[in-house]
What does this fold into?
Amino acid sequence: MIRYGISDLAVVWSQGSWTFVVSGKDQSQDVATARQLVAYFAANALPAGPGLYQMLYAGAGDISTINWVQDNSTFLVDATGSDPTLAAQFAAAVRT
It folds into this structure.
């Protein structure tokens, strides 16, 4: 768990060339979401990367953002919804 500012917390970890960030106001929710993402990525490979996956719990809706470099292209996907794997599903689908 990493603390940003006075009250913002985030779970941050790296796997291969990817960095993952889950951030919200509830530490137990952040840890549970991080575990859910680890399980998802164990079964669904992401592009080689490097890449950054961010999950933000916001008052107006949960936002997952994923961006990565593949060959000479940079990809960015933003998704809003209750499933933290939404953006990852797209990235796994376009994996070559």
